[in-house]
Amino acid sequence: MASNAAFAEVANLAGDPARAGMLHALMDGRALTATELARVAGITPQTASGHLMQLTAGGLLSVEKQGRHRYHRLASPAVARMLESIMQVAADAAPRKKTFAGPRDLALRAARTCYDHLAGHLGVALADALVTRGDIELGADAGIVTKSGAALFDRLGIELGANSKSKSRMMCRPCLDWSERRPHLAGHVGAALCKHCLSEGWIKHIDGTRAVAVTVKGQRNFRDVFGVSGV
Amino acid sequence: MASNAAFAEVANLAGDPARAGMLHALMDGRALTATELARVAGITPQTASGHLMQLTAGGLLSVEKQGRHRYHRLASPAVARMLESIMQVAADAAPRKKTFAGPRDLALRAARTCYDHLAGHLGVALADALVTRGDIELGADAGIVTKSGAALFDRLGIELGANSKSKSRMMCRPCLDWSERRPHLAGHVGAALCKHCLSEGWIKHIDGTRAVAVTVKGQRNFRDVFGVSGV
DNA sequence: GCGATGCTTCGGCCCTGGCCGAAGCATTTT
DNA sequence: AAAATGCTTCGGCCAGGGCCGAAGCATCGC
Hints:
The structure is a homodimer. Chain A is of the alpha+beta class. Chain A has two domains: 3-78, Arc Repressor Mutant, subunit A (Orthogonal Bundle), CATH 1.10.10; 103-226, no CATH class. In chain A, 50% of the residues lie in helices and 18% in strands. Chain A has ten helices and eleven strands. The first copy, chain A, has helices at 3-14, 17-26, 34-41, 45-57, 77-93, 103-110, 120-132, 147-156, 187-199, 216-226, and strands at residues 32-33, 61-66, 69-74, 112-114, 117-119, 136-138, 143-145, 171-176, 183-186, 203-205, 212-214. In chain A, the strands form four sheets. In chain A, strands 6-7-8-9 form a four-stranded antiparallel β-sheet. In chain A, strands 1-3-2 form a three-stranded antiparallel β-sheet. In chain A, strands 4-5 form a two-stranded antiparallel ribbon. Chain A starts with a helix and ends in a 5-residue tail after the last helix. Chain A binds a DNA duplex through residues 16, 18, 33-35, 43-51, 53, 67-70.
């Protein structure tokens, strides 16, 4: 079968430690330069250049040239979902490592972005709160936004663009959280919510990682709007 | 970050051509012996043995000893979803290969199982029919079974076990088909439907692959029950 | 028991592919 | 111009790991 070779090629691209580090760093959806990626992967720029070429040729990354910089980002949401699913299996399979969580790990577990939506303790807490309040219904495979949820998002000024579709109900995707082992909110709705939190200044990226910090304003709003405190 | 190493390890396991072939062969959810897997991967049994040990140690496979045979299967649905998502990216990224589809490829494209549900032309046609008839609603991220759909499945004797949950509506997962580039039906509902088709003799596995053939009885039922013909 | 079958371990071959230093383009800055 | 910055190409080094043949354990059938 021909598709087999392509499969191994893609998996192999993600299977090198240096390349895995780069993909990991790109999982929050931002675009990074080759030198930045070399630094996070712990290799020299010329080695990184080779890896980036392979990743681009393999369809995992797309490049945007801008002056003397070249910005690399994940090629598509499908790539992000693939990376998420690999992380899921990796987290399932290797709880053997009692990896004493360093400060960076702790920050990631508390709250992080997962390509375009929120994950970590914050992400799960928000999903829980929305379910408890009856704003969304979440199953193992899928979720939907209820009438009250649609009203809530509307009140917050969150645009659920897919309303333009003929779908009578907004649907969303649950995403199993590798650190909390419980689902958080992904898909269109999760992305819109995350975007809103960032633009309202409720959360902000820590230095240049996927970890996010909840601002004072965010703490107030998460408590008042969603009934979520202690994040 | 510690989880990075585990990520690369898992991806690397799937990234070797021989191991990829084995995983591919296991994607229909059956359990195969080491020798069978060696054959599909095109390697000797002793080489396969090493690969299988790695895959098991990495948490991708689970082994069941039975007499002098050792049956290997995917360790969890999470692994199956990971493999699906990699195939998705691989299919997206490599349409360069004008791969003249051999007969095996053609059979796979017509109808196949995707771990526990139906894919290929048949899977997409069934999903389309169910949507058209109003039995399910399918978005990009999620789907739900409508009242009429629940009645249909009940009439067919398909048990949607998750009804026991407090969920008021049955939800299901759409899965982007790599050959058709359109969603087919996955998740709990997709699995139940596939199981029903197999047990009723509407479809059956071709030799020992993921490809399935539609029986005469199946053609009649797909036409009469779902309005799907020409499969 | 004895041989056949399924699978694993061991040892050694070989080659892919990741790594870096040095040098070469391209673009921006002074 | 000339220097600085970002990135890529080239060449050579080297280790990791996939592969098989041969031999060693298990389990089944006679």
